[in-house]
Every structure is written in structure tokens, then in C-alpha cells.
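Quick one, C-alpha cells below. Sequence please?
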């Protein structure tokens, strides 16, 4: 099996495509979908790398998998990889937005710069994606009942775990990274074990498939006893739960991401920058000559011969 086959991206994206199609047919919010919206998930747009198109995600996944396989596994299937690679998640409350708010290019660039700040001078390749929080309560750091919490997942290498943790811990203390609520972490680091790199690549490149909910519970010490402040009040903290997206939630995520492209949601630094540059060049190459004449204006990409580029 190839590295890409071991990621199972094709399988997961096939499931997501089916779930999206059912949402388009059965959601109570399906009336919000225009005729153009319903065209975007179709296979003919795979080369446009649309964030809401499962065929685009398969193509993007295959190309990125190929580059990572070549770099870490000498073109192998991912059973082993060279060096230490870490899976890092970075979150900050300033990147939370209302589900109805359309993310502009400038806002997306601002988010990318803020989220990847802690990885500067390191080698990394990552993707920005939203987590949909559907029932925010009083006491969280966002003023609203629902939000798209944009965050970053990245593969990081060429640095020790100790140095990486020290850098991110310092940024959390300074307030650069902040979780959406007390009790949740703003950063997360996990060393990728041998044989599991394809699995983490699949997670890195996945489309949103979970809705997140917060509940409140008492804070406890190591022995399980409630923690009480000086006034005798039991301190509370939030606990996060998740579940498969409901039909209406899929429609909300679709509207929030339908104008975005996978290559623009990607970030990279160090050796990862050349990997991402090559992946973009390959993924945007269309071997067909069919024009995407029915793509809405904001989505359509300019063409020069058979190469898709932006101006």
C-alpha cells in the first residue's frame, strides 16, 4: 500500500461527501443553499481545491501525502519515518468568529500569522480549520451562543520536544494563545510514533466532521475533592464534548467555508515551505481543458493553458 492509501483519506472523504449530500437534501436549512452552492461539491471542481469539495480534499490529500512520503519516508508507505515529528495544535480566542461571518482574505492571513507565530524558526506544515461550537454558555471567552473557532494543526520537526513545549508554554502565559474557556488547553503537542504518520496526516487534512459542546463542572484536586476559593465558593471549569455534525451544522460550516481554498488554508515554514510550494504547484495542475464556467465569481480561478493560478 502507498502512503496515501494508508491515510484512508479517500474513504473518509467519501463518507463526508455522503453526509454532506444528505444534509443538502434533508436539513431544515437547505433553503439557504443557492443553485451555485449545490454545484460546488461536485467532482468537476476537484482542481479548484475548494474547502467544501471532498474530491478537492482527496486530490490535496494525495499530493501532500506524496510530498511528505518523499521527505520523511523515502517514498515509502509511512511504516517508518525519519527523525522526530510532532503533531501540534494551536488555538487562540481572537480567531473565533460568528458562523454567519464570512472570513475575508485579510482576516484569514491575520489568523494564520497569529496561530503559526509559536512555530517561527521551526520546520512545519499545517492547515487552518474551524471547530464549530454550537452551545456556548456564560463564562466562556466568546460573546455569543455559537462560533467558528479557527485553529491550526501542524506537523513540526527539526526541534526537540522540550524546546517546543518551552516556547509554547511561554506564549500561553503571555496570552498569545488562549483557549475558548477555562479547563481547555490552548496548545497541544504529541510525538508521532513510527507507523502512525499517515494517520496524523489524515487528521491534518480532514474536513470538519464534529460539533463541539461545553458543559460546566466543579474543579477537583489530584485526590478528586472540589477546589474551593477563599470565600468558600467551589471553582468551576468547562469540559468539552463532541458529536457528529447534524445536518443544520453541516450547512453552517459549508456557508462559512464555501469561498475558501485548501491551498490558502495551508501554512508552512522552514523545510515545510518548499514541500508546500511543490504541493500547491502539483495540486493546482489540471490535466483537462474543461472551463469552470459555472463557478460563482469569487470562486472561479484564472487559467493560463492548463495551469490554475491566482492573480
Amino acid at each position: 500500500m502507498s502512503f496515501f492509501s494508508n491515510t484512508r483519506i479517500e474513504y473518509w472523504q467519501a463518507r463526508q461527501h455522503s453526509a454532506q449530500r444528505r444534509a443538502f437534501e434533508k436539513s431544515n436549512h437547505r433553503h439557504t443553499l443557492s443553485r451555485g452552492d449545490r454545484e460546488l461539491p461536485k467532482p468537476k471542481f476537484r482542481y479548484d481545491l475548494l474547502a467544501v469539495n471532498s474530491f478537492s480534499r482527496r486530490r490535496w490529500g494525495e499530493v501532500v501525502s506524496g510530498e511528505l512520503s518523499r521527505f520523511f519516508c523515502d517514498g515509502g508507505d509511512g511504516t517508518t519515518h525519519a527523525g522526530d515529528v510532532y503533531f501540534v495544535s494551536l488555538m487562540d480566542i481572537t480567531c473565533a468568529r460568528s458562523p454567519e461571518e464570512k472570513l475575508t482574505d485579510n482576516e484569514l492571513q491575520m489568523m494564520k500569522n497569529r496561530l503559526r507565530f509559536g512555530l517561527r524558526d521551526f520546520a512545519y506544515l499545517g492547515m487552518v480549520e474551524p471547530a464549530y461550537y454550537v452551545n456556548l454558555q456564560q463564562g466562556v471567552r466568546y460573546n455569543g451562543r455559537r462560533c467558528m473557532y479557527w485553529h491550526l494543526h501542524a506537523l513540526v520537526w527539526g526541534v526537540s520536544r522540550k524546546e517546543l513545549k518551552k516556547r509554547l508554554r511561554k506564549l500561553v502565559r503571555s496570552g498569545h494563545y488562549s483557549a475558548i474557556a477555562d479547563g481547555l488547553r490552548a496548545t497541544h503537542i504529541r510525538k508521532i510514533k513510527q507507523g502512525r504518520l499517515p494517520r496524523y496526516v489524515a487528521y491534518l487534512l480532514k474536513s470538519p466532521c464534529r460539533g463541539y459542546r461545553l458543559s460546566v463542572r466543579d474543579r477537583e484536586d489530584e485526590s478528586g475533592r472540589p477546589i474551593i476559593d477563599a470565600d468558600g465558593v467551589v471553582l468551576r471549569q468547562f469540559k468539552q464534548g463532541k458529536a457528529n455534525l447534524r445536518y443544520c451544522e453541516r450547512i453552517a460550516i459549508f456557508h462559512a467555508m464555501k469561498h475558501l481554498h485548501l491551498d490558502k488554508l495551508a501554512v508552512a515554514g522552514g523545510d515545510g515551505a518548499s514541500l508546500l510550494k511543490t504541493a500547491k504547484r502539483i495540486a493546482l495542475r489540471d490535466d483537462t481543458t474543461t472551463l469552470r464556467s459555472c463557478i460563482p465569481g469569487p470562486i472561479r480561478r484564472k487559467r493560463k493553458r492548463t495551469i490554475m493560478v491566482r492573480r
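The chain is about 35% helix and 20% strand. The beta strands are 85-97, 123-133, 147-157, 187-191, 210-218, 236-244, 266-269, 302-304, 307-309.
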